[in-house]
Every structure is written in structure tokens, then in C-alpha cells.
Amino acid sequence: MARSNKPKKSYRPEGEIRRSQLLMGYGPGAMIDLLYDAVLIGGLDYWRYEAPKHGVEQIEEPRLTAKLIEVMRGLGMNPAPNLGLQSPPECNFDEATPRQGIQALEFPRYFKCQRCHSIAHATEFEEGSRGRTHRCGPGYAKKPARAVPVRFVAVCEDGHISDWPWDAWTHRVGGMPRCDAPDIKLREGASGDISEIRAVCENCGATAKLAQALIPALRPSCSGARPWLGDRDVAGQRCENKARLLVRTATNGYFAQCLSALWLPVHDEALAEAVGANWATLGTVTSLEVLRVLREHTPQLRATLPADWGDEAVLAAIERRREGADKALPPLDEAEYDAFVNAPVEQEADQPPLGCRFFARTMRAPAEGLPQGIAGVVLVPKLREVQAQFGFSRLEAAIARADGSYGDDAKIAPLSLEPKWLPAIEINGEGLFLRFDEERLRAWEARECVQARNDQLLTGFRRWAAQRHGSVEFRGARYYMLHTLSHLLMTAIALECGYAASSIRERIYCREPNHSGPGKAGILLSTGTPGSEGTLGGLVDQGRYLRYHLRRAFELGTLCSGDPVCALHQPELEFDERSTEGAACHSCVYIPETSCESFNRFLDRALVFPTIGQAEQLAFFGERP
Q1: Residue 322, Cβ density class (10 Å: 0-12 exposed, 13-18 middle, ≥19 buried)
Q2: Full residue range of the structural domain in which residue 433 is found
Q3: Where is each MrfA-like Zn-binding domain found (predicted)?
Q4: Which of 48, 299, 308, 330 lies 20 to 30 Å (CA to CA) from residue 129?
């Protein structure tokens, strides 16, 4: 059969996004500008994995999956009991096909003519290879003018999004009834500032200043639309909120809500199997004392329960089997913290084996010892982190509690109507873990001035929390100190390790001692790259120069270019955007928000190093390390 000369149809995509970007800020429900258009990324039901060359890449991380199910159920979502994690679809730009990739919705659907300034629905403009055009009519040139998406949309706190109701809103605010043939034009001043923008109906003369959309009484009702999930009749919701005008490229238009977990070399499966095989003997064990006696005097247990499985781990496995599958895995932060604290001491020529995903060794203390307050340094040349997105928020970022949960009224929008899986990526890299001296921490927390500062921070925190959706817990002076030191160390280390400050991320492990267990205090600084074998060791090596970096951090933290205003900030008295901070600002401790786990909240350098105008006893490191 002769080959047809008919050109093959092209399915080239409209744009491309890296897999990691989909989880960091361009996931379902996010707005993206293209060359001639703007789109809204579709929900998970519109992600395609059907091309034969590219299968679905499943990611296994049981601890993270269990935590995601718990968090999503607490938010009113309905995840599948066998919720899965998988990488976003892989699509070769040159081999694009509708059966592979992510579908997006053209949004906003209203466009503005660049010549006559008319605003109308996309269907009223001509569509071409270089975007939409408009024939302006009498009084204008016959050549079509280019039309661009309107740069304003309507959103609400629940994540709903829709076009701004230009026609109805202009006439209502302008105090005139809707005319029969509305012709809305958007008149912008020279600066483009919202105070100079007016919506005008050329037919009846109704005029509304766009700045009036900021007045609560003049805001329209929210439509409840969730277009990333499907049509209005399927995905729409009843909404009692007032819609808010938002520039579609504004940074507060989308906050990805993610959870992550480190891969740990634990023996959960093997240990569970060993406990199950010996259940006739271990089923009645309820204390460490009985377990130790049995392990010592029972040959079968000595043979099937290796000595490196500690008594605590074995007893925990017994209790998990007794309680059922819902208690099968320890909390994320507890397991990670214990893995670092119990890391073996480094040996000469100790190298990670080929293919290793997690390799941590406790650094031997240098001749001069570790800085006061630091109990240990753990070097982590191999680290694998799995990060998964389960939702997003608009207008304000939802901050999780210390255990990863959220308040009942947290405003987090779902990625799918019925989540059966979530997008995730694997990040391979390296890390540096610092463990703090618990006795020294408790003595510091007992100081009268530290307790007074804690009360001041608590007052400011409560004022801030009262204005938010989703209950956020106050984490105390201990967390403020650890979090602030983490930021200062990241800035200091970035100057030496070869990585930009924005590529280093933090994980804070913090708990004050209470009836449920001993306290914990640790900082993990890590860096990594999705889809690679890891990094080059520049960050790990800086752990051997900790004292030097603490001194650099001391210099950065004791004096800020914003002092004395920064140092004397009073969170309990000044109700502003910094109500959650003490002595902290962009000039001293703020870092890129991609690196911070709390969006640059809960910081106070006066609790770390001596600061102008504050008592020296406040500082955990009272002297230069």
C-alpha cells in the first residue's frame, strides 16, 4: 500500500513543566502563563499515563502514605484506603501525544483587546496560531488586534476560582441596571496600578473603579467553581464567601500543600514477620523486662530476632501487631529523629554502599570538642526524601501543626474529587543533622527572661492565629530558637558549601519533654535533586567545620542592618505581619520560602545570640562559639 503524502497531525503540547515544579507550585488548580494564552492545570483525573513508551512510576513509602491518609481524612477529603503515590507523567516534547501528559483548561476565559480595551468572553474573539485576536469595529483599523487574557480573576479562601463577573459587577457598582447590550472596556492608567483602572460600559456609561473591588460590601458572591476538577455541575460547591479580586500571577494565588518523609533503613517488614512467627511466645509480652528475659533464655528467639533489633523496637512491633494494622508504623518525625540520634559512629574509610538510599554516621568530636549546646553532629552523605502533594490553598498558606495535621477549618482544596493516588517525587541528596544538649536546653528554658519572652511571643502568635483559618499551635521558645538558628546556619553554610541558599532545606525536630516522652531538639539541613543519584558532598563536609559556621552565624545574628528597629520589635504590642516574630526581618534571618518549613514564621534571633536592646540571658549561645 502506498504511503499517504498527507502530513502527520502534530500534537505538540502548549508548554512544558518539570516534574518537581508540579509539586512546588504548578500542580492541579494552578494558573500558568503561556506564550499567547493562560491556563489552569487540570486535576489528577486529567493526568494521562497511557502512552506505551512511558509507564506509571509508582513510589513506595508506607509511612508517608499512612500519614497522608490520616491528614486528608482530617480535612474532610476521602482518600482511597489503598492510596498510592506516583510520579507525574513523563512526556517527551518531540513525541507528544494526547494519551500522555497533563490536560489544562484555558483560563481565564475573558480576554482584553490590546487596541480598543474591550473585555469579552473568549468565544467572542477570533482564535489563531498566535493566540486570539479582535476586530474592533468602526473607528479602528481593519487589521485584527491582539487579545490577551484578563489579568484579574475571582477567588475565595476555599480555593474556588472563576472569571471576575465584569458585566454584572460594573453595572451594580456603577449604580445602574444591566443594559441590553453591555460593552465593557477596561481603562488603565499609565502605571497600571489598580487605583487607576476603571471598568466602563460604553453602551450605558456605567463606571466602576477596580479599587472598589477591595471593599467587602462591593465584592461579588463566590461562584463556588472548581474548574480544575471538572464542569460546574460536577465539581461546583455552594459557597457563602465573598469573592476576592486577584491578579492571576500573584504569589498568593497558589500554595502547594505537601508532606514529605525520609526513607529509613528500618526493619519493619522483617521484624513484623519475625514477631508473627514467634507470636505464641511473644503474644503475651507487655514489658521490656519480660522481653529481655525471653530473648536471653529462648534459643528460638535468639535465632530469629537479631541483636541489632533493640528490645524497644521488638516491643513496639509486638504492640503494633496486638493493636492492628492502623498502628503499624511509627510517626514520621519520631522515626527520622531516632534514625539520626542512633546513627553509628563513623569509621575510617566508611563509605555508603552502592545503591544505598540512606547512610548516616555520627561524626567523631574534634580535639577541641563540640560547641557548647551541641550534643552531636551526624553526617548524612546519602539521603532520599519522598515528597507528595495532597492539596493546595489560596490567599494564605496553610501551616501544619508539629505532628503534620491541620485544624478542622483549614482551607485546603483537593487535587481530585475522589483521590486514588497523589503526585510525588523522589529527591536524592545529602544532609547534615545537629542534635542539641537536652539538659542545657532545659536549663535555658527555665530562665525567667526566656519564659517572659515566650509569653510575649505567645501573645503575638494568638493575635495572628485569630485572623487565620485552621488552628495552628504555638510551638514555644524552643522551636523559635531552633528555627532561627537553622536559618542563620543555612545562610552561613551557603557561602562555603557550593550550593545556593535556596537549594538548602530545613527540617526541625522539636518537642518539649512531657508525660508522653523525653524532649527532642534537632536540625536537619539537606539538599537534593529529583531524578538524580544525589549530590557531591559539599554540604556534608561542612559538618566538620561546625564551629566556624556557628561563628559566622553569630556575626549574622547579633547585628542586623535593620537594628534597632528589628531587634526591638515587640510582637505582643505591635499587631502587624510580624506578630509571629521577635527580632527577625528580611535583612537578617528570612530565607527563600522554598527552604523554610514555616514560611518565615516563628523566628527570633534574640533567643539564639545576644541582640541589641535584649537581655543577654535570652540567648542560648550567650558567647561567641
Answers
A1: middle
A2: 357-618
A3: 485-589
A4: 48
Half-sphere exposure of 132 (CA within 13 A, CB side): 25
Neighbours of 246 (CB within 10 A): 21
Distance CA 329, CA 324 (A): 11
Q: Is the dihedral of CA 141, 147, 151, 155 positive or negative?
A: positive
Position 618 pLDDT exceeds 70: yes
Question: Which residue(s) pair with 506 in the sheet?
Answer: 525
| Burial call 404-439: b when 16+ CB within 10 Å, e when fewer | bbbbeebbbbbbbeebebbbbbbbbbbbbbbbbbee
Cell of 243: 469573592
Does 515 reside within a domain? yes
Q: Identify whether 399 is part of a domain.
A: yes
C-alpha cell read off for 75 = 480535612
Number of domains composing the chain: 2
pLDDT band at 525 (very low <50, low <70, confident <90, very high): very high
Q: What is the pLDDT of residues 21-50, one digit of tens each?
A: 888 888 899 998 888 888 999 999 888 887
Q: How far apart are CA 268 and CA 264, in angstroms?
A: 10
Looking up cell 503561556 gives: 34
- Cα of 448 vs its chain's centroid, Å: 35
The whole-angstrom distance between residue 264's C-alpha and the CA centroid of its chain comes to 21
Q: Is the pTM of this model over 0.90?
A: no
Alpha-carbon span 602 to 592, nearest angstrom: 15
Residue 55 pLDDT grade (very low, low, confident, very high; cuts 50, 70, 90)? low
Euclidean distance between CA atoms 129 and 136, whole angstroms: 19
Dmax over CA atoms of the chain, in Å, equals 100
Tell the residue number behind the cell numbers 500554595, with chain if given.
Answer: 255
The reply to whether 285 falls in a domain is yes
Q: Which residue has the higher pLDDT, 530 or 246?
A: 246
Among candidate residues 153, 32, 159, the one with its CA nearest the CA of residue 102: 32
DSSP string, 207-252: EEEGGGGGSGGGSPBP----GGGS-HHHH-----SBPEEEETT-GG
pLDDT > 50? residue 327: no
* 432 within domain boundaries: yes
Which tens digit of pLDDT belongs to each residue from 78-119? 888 888 899 888 776 666 677 778 888 889 999 988 888 888
